[in-house]
Design the sequence.
């Protein structure tokens, strides 16, 4: 079996279990996540694979990291190995790979990103209380937070409140590689999305 059907099946099972645990209807999940009921039905039937923005919205609604939604197997007490998943692909070949996450109520996600020249992601604010930190390995990353632009070069890091509108850009002529940590608070506010991505 390929990874795509595995991920779709894992997502379907997890969504059904989380909805049942909370006693939510599909309409309630749609209202809380901002994802249409039709998309949610397709996901719960294992007929669709969500993009990163949809994963983030559903994760935010349930208050869980996105890795829980796409977990294809049970984890031992100590997980050793490669549990990574590419959850974003840029138009020029860049990638956003989630390496792992801690369990709720406070979730921390560890990401590895590569942005090709001209690529960008993000834009909207995460839920209030979210914190982000990035460490640039190579290239120069442009981070715009609440309209203020910051250039982060190799070996440098930045941290900020993810509850503010923010965007990551590669405006330079070379590949940018960086690591990101996102810390997600247990409380979720409606109407805000994790990444503000449409694709």
Sequence:
């Amino acid at each position: 079996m390929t990874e795509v059907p595995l991920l779709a099946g894992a997502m379907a099972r997890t969504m059904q279990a989380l909805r049942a645990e909370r006693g939510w209807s599909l309409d309630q999940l749609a209202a809380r996540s901002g994802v249409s009921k039709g998309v949610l039905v397709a996901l719960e039937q294992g007929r669709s694979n969500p993009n990163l923005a949809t994963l983030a919205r559903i994760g935010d609604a349930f208050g869980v990291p996105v890795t829980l939604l796409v977990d294809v197997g049970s984890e031992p007490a100590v997980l050793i190995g490669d549990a990574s998943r590419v959850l974003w692909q840029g138009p020029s070949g860049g990638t956003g790979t989630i390496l792992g996450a801690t369990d709720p109520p406070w979730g921390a996600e560890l990401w590895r990103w590569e942005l090709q020249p001209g690529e960008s992601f993000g834009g909207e604010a995460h839920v209030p209380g979210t914190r982000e930190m990035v460490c640039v390995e190579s290239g120069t990353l442009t981070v715009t937070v609440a309209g203020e632009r910051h250039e982060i070069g190799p070996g440098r890091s930045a941290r900020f409140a993810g509850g503010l509108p923010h965007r990551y850009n590669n405006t330079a002529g070379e590949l940018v590689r960086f690591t990101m940590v996102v810390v997600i608070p247990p409380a979720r506010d409606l109407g805000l999305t994790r990444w503000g991505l449409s694709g």
User: Anything to note?
Assistant: The two ends are 25 Å apart (CA to CA). Residues 140 and 153 are 4 Å apart (CA to CA). The chain has a mean pLDDT of 81. The beta strands are 85-89, 95-101, 107-115, 120-122, 131-138, 141-145, 148-152, 157-161, 166-169, 176-184.
